[in-house]
């Protein structure tokens, strides 16, 4: 059964897509079967993976489960990393969801048939608070929230922590300029206040992240040793460590070692 | 099939050039990769056309024909024998448990390869398929290397299957590549000097009705001896419980042949072997019983109320301790001079048997069809008598004796009946017999388990948490007792089917 991880923030332009694409890339590289669902009608991650932002039948048929989700998935340039592409019709997904009795459970039901095919499913969410995000909260095992180091953004994250009671919520700082004292101070304060929720990596503002649009691949492929690539590696390691809980074991012949 | 061999006359570079011709490809990437393949001793995965392979940090169960991964797990390569139950919960454990059960997965062969990968590009430079040219070699435990034939693999990218089909057609019809005649793992196993498919524990011998009975017996007994000998190392190393089980089943089957076909053997020589085989059977009995207790421990837990389930842990500790001690003893027995001498003597006895004078072996030259048929009929008749005298108040020993006879009949049917008599008679008969044996087995197992639990009470009580464990064991004994009674109740119906008039007539007509 896969773990569903959603990169989410109410604001746009904070590094959701970069995080989703880079983490999905690292998961696949480390041997995990990985799917990224680009839920954002702008289709940025779909573009980065060189796939056409189009699904036959559109978002409405998909959430109604009239189209077979397995038919829509596309392999990417990277082994083990698949994409469920964006579609412009996703901009009306709220309306499509609203027609159901329990709209918030919809995305989880759409994903159900493929949960065993992947180890990780990343949801790249559009920026908003809407039925789509409510539905994402129900489908996800964890939310990954990029936070830009500004007081207001940090407050919004705290509100999210209070409000969301389904998935685990992890925050990480994004678009950080470590030369700025304000950034450094805010990061230190915030990590101290939320040690369980804050992941121990800060993604710097960097040329390599911006280059993703040009090169159409993950930072780790563009410049594996650059600070942004290392920060995503750290983020991924920390996330994995926190997601892998203790395993229940059954009776074996010998005492477990 | 997604793997191909380049035409014989083509060089490796030529193959690379051929692959690149006529399609848009990205830059070639070269990497070195190590794979370890795993299977059970008896090749259960191979029989299902599955491969368990560890590569680049992932342990994956792959379908041989389609190369599709059924389930996988990111993990370091297993360092010792791996039981499916030891894996974390998830699809890989479920799939492996379904195919391998309690058999351990062992490393089969290590393959190191240099792999050149080419991405086939479509619109927007998007990868639409992958091709790789692989130069594999087998690395043995002593680090010696054996080169295997280079092979080409094409891998579909999800959602671009048409491109994959086009590539495959091009490889075969235009470039003259041949679909690989065997999977890489089989080629590697052969190169390592082994046979793909492992060592089966089920024996299949072809016999003819008019064959001399002693010759047929030798045929069967030799194959059983092969299984006995092949099971020893795994039993001593305690790799999984099936080595000892296979060992004991083959000993028991050999004993059944010794007893049921005794007139094909010279009586004095046979006597010694029968005694020694009985000794081996007895000396390994405790270890097998304890294996079963530990294997079935989760079933025990399920028999007590949820709140008590974890309170049984001290019992598990004691059972594991006893099991470890019993296995040490089995190791000692199997490594003893007495055992190796016995098995060597038995083999040379079998080698000589047919050439020995037939004076005191009245059945030796009779047709095996006749001798086996007669025995099947006799044992069946004896079971009818024994079973007919059983009712719900009978002593447990009576059920046990009937079960022992039943095993004898089953072995006769499986070892000789199946090869010599029509399937439509033997198969239903084995089925009815199995159904009967199941309830007799349940009865006997529960009886013995209750006695064992009682005998372990004091030892469990002395452990931390022992008092609660003993209470839970009391509930368990109660439940096992209910099971035993249920088996007694089910017996009558099963026996009726086994002993029906039509079944008796069939046995008389077929084996008479």
Could you please describe the fold and organization of this structure?
The complex is a heterodimer of chains A (257) and B (512). Chain A is an alpha/beta fold and 257 residues long. Chain A has a single domain, classed as Rossmann fold (3-Layer(aba) Sandwich). Helix content of chain A is 41%, strand content 17%. Chain A is built from 12 helices and 8 strands. Chain A has an 8-stranded mixed beta sheet, with helices on both faces. In chain A, α8 links the parallel β6 and β7. The relative contact order of chain A is 0.18. Chain B has 2 domains: 189 residues, Hypothetical Protein Pfu-838710-001 (Beta Barrel); 299 residues, CHAD domain. In chain B, 58% of the residues lie in helices and 14% in strands. Chain B has 512 residues and is an alpha+beta fold. Chain B is globular, with a radius of gyration of 28 Å. The longest helix of chain B is centred in the last third of the chain and has 39 residues.
Considering residues with a beta carbon less than 8 A from a beta carbon on another chain, report the largest interface and each chain's count.
Answer: A-B, 26 and 38 residues
Rounded to the nearest angstrom, the distance between the terminal CA atoms of chain A is: 26 Å
As a whole number of angstroms, the C-alpha radius of gyration of chain B is 28 Å
> Which descriptor suits the 3D outline of chain A?
globular
**Euclidean distance between termini CA atoms of chain B:** 52 Å
The CATH class label of the largest domain in chain B is Mainly Alpha
Q: Any idea how many domains of chain A?
A: 1
Poorly predicted residue ranges of chain B = none
What proportion of the residues of chain A form beta strands (DSSP E)? Answer: 15-25%
